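Support request, please re-run this one:
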Amino acid sequence: MNKHRFQKLTFKEKVQWIYFNGEFVTSIRYYKYKVNLYLLDRLYIELFYNNLEDAVEKIEVLDERSKRMNFYTDQIKLPRL
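Re-run finished. Output below.
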């Protein structure tokens, strides 16, 4: 799986790929979300879960230059991809 191919999947297909093929890494709190970080092949994928709505609202490939990387690297040492 590569970034381009993953982004072309439907929302439902993304959820299935993550849950069946992804490896859970860690989670953070980010505004109203609990964000679960998964490693899928060589991609870090964020799954944004809204507790109040009891629903996954978005799924994004994590850009390693994102400021959110600091939230993860403060908790664990992420391997370089």
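The first strand starts at residue 23 and ends at 30. The chain has a mean pLDDT of 88.
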